[in-house]
Amino acid sequence: MTFLTLTGIQKQFGTSVAVRDFNLSAEKGEFVSFLGPSGCGKTTTLRMIAGFEQPSAGRITIDGEDITYRPPNRRNVGMVFQSYALFPNMTVAGNIGFGMRVRKRPGSDVQKRVSELLELINLPDKGDRFPYQLSGGQQQRVALARALAIEPQVLLLDEPLSALDAKIRVALRKEIRSIQRQLGITTVYVTHDQEEALSLSDRVVVMSEGRIEQIGAPPEIYNFPATPFVASFVGTLNLLAARVVDGPSGRLTIDGQEIRSAQAIASTGKVTVALRPEAVELGEAGGPNRLTGSVEDVSFLGSIVRTRVRLGEGATVSLDTFNDPGLAAATVGDTVTVSFPPEAALVLAGEASAEESIEQAIAEG
Amino acid sequence: MTGPGPFGRHPDAIDSVADGPPAVETRPSRLRSLPWWIVFIIGILYFFLPLLGTFAFSLRAQPLFSAYAIVTDDPQFFATLIYSFVVGILTIIVSTVLIVPTAYWVRLRLPRLRPYVEFITLLPFVVPPIILVFGLLRTYGSGPLPLAGSDFGSNILLVAAYTVLSLPYMYRAVDTGLRAIDIRSLTEASQSLGAGWPTILWRVIFPNVRTSILSGAFLTLAIVVGEYTIATFLARPAFGPYISLIGGNLAYEPAAVSLISFGLTWIAMGFISIVGRRSRTRLQLTGAH
């Protein structure tokens, strides 16, 4: 059953449109991420759900109730901020219990709930500390507990991990997801980090310039990007200019070298071919499509080695291989052949213009 | 091996080298800090010589310390001082209640108005108190609100006038305090937890700018206790007019009064810093985090 719905949401600041025609319905207990670059409207949309901004048009409902114009303190929505926003004058327990005390719950109830939540966030003995005595990761866990203390209908997280370092980010991300699953709370998570969005969410909403580009489960977003924007924003992607040789059979040329796509191509002339670096192999074992060029750069990324190969006229293909100490990496300047299967060559129309035809092409593919 | 052996010279040589550089380095560093010492000493003299002179002058009254005895025996001294302290505290309360929410709202919702509000708060530096008090007397001397006609009304006018005088100090202090905390996020966090405006102000904003309010309050108290013009024209029994009165009539006692009020001001400053220390350390640590 649909629990949180946003219908035809628009937000204008003066003459500039921050969010346009945003439609989303989330199930109860679902984890939805808004993913996009800064300025794409994801935080504005989240703030409209929280009530800090009012939509210029559209409707927001939670559990069937219209809350579009309800002030934020009368919605039952928990919010976690990028800057933690803990009250510096209160202890950890004071922070977590704040919402319940505002709601005039009896002291014993508040105490009980606070200690339950301290257990939940693995900080059982930190109740009497002040926020400044905790690390960033601990502060953000307290902020999460504070938001959960009021038993909100919807939990909103606004880039909660951006201020933390990489290791804590990954650990806390798992913790947030497991707590969310445990409590079955409908969650909206805003991030510009695709890895975060893909690893956490049931569904990802990719946004750009105030518009929804695509809504889908993480594998769908990654494997079948609906628009050139999604294709380029989610994951690393090779975008290669290609010329259609024979549309219906999917034959094209890249840099004068012929390849085949698994999809039938409706357009003629120039198209763009998207290739994931992990779908391309060095050598000829990757599939029937082969391209020859010279190695331009080899970067060692830890578990992965990324090799950039320059094809004759300037196009480059990046490819990822797992790091294997037993294998020597390619040397810059070597002439190599790279290969990939027809399914890996995703054909996007011309100069990234006609989105409908792309969607159609992907649907057909 | 005793006595200077084959290596005997080396320790000596090293010693002399070790002694050498500090001696060479100390001299210029002492020289470099000399101007600062001179400035420091001039500063000390500037602040303390008048006090010393006043103290020495007050001791001329015979018998010794009789000037202090006369002053403290005068019931007017404590009556006016207490009156001024009470007015000072009322002024602090009124200006806090007015300025904290105003500065908060301007920062949160009306940032574009900030230059104008700052200009208004600086007006007391431009408009002399004599103009202010004549304005008050003309407006409230008669007409629909003849406040200046009664003692109670005049007290209200005095507190109101002092609230205006304290504006620059109070507003600046509170505004600086608000800048140190992320009021937008704290406000939104409180709102999402169900708090309304009174709760946000009282439970979140006030406690976090307490130190700033205290430092503004201290300046306000210092101004109010020594203020002369407005209190005189409103005919209030305040401390400023009292000092002026005995200054005109007595020789050594005004010196004693000045020193006592100076001492009381210092005590007030110490009190505020003790009360404020707890929250200040906390805020500093949070800021550094």
Q: Main attributes?
A:
heterodimer; A: 365 residues; alpha+beta; 6-stranded mixed sheet; 5-stranded antiparallel sheet; 9 helices; 26% helix; elongated; disordered C terminus; B: 289 residues; mainly alpha; MetI-like fold; 12 helices; disordered N terminus
> What is the correct CATH architecture of the domain at 81-237 in chain B?
Orthogonal Bundle
Low-confidence blocks of residues of chain A: 351-365
Give the helix tally of chain A. 9
Topology order of chain A in helix (H) and strand (E) letters: EEEHEEEHHHEHEHEEHHEEEEEEEEEEH
| Overall spatial form of chain B | globular
Number of strands of chain B: 0
Q: List low-confidence stretches of chain B.
A: 1-25, 280-289
**Radius of gyration of CA atoms of chain A, rounded to a whole number:** 24 Å
The level 1 CATH classification of the domain at 81-237 in chain B is: Mainly Alpha
* Strands side by side in the biggest sheet of chain A: 6-7-8-3-9-10
Q: Briefly note the CATH topology name of the domain at 81-237 in chain B.
A: MetI-like fold
* Structural class computed from helices and strand pairing of chain B: mainly alpha
Helical fraction of chain B: over 70%
Distance between the ends of chain B: 59 Å
Series of H and E elements of chain B: HHHHHHHHHHHH
- Beta-strand content bin of chain A: 25-35%
Q: Measure the end-to-end span of chain A.
A: 31 Å
For this structure, the quaternary state is: heterodimer
Find the CATH superfamily of the domain at 81-237 in chain B: MetI-like
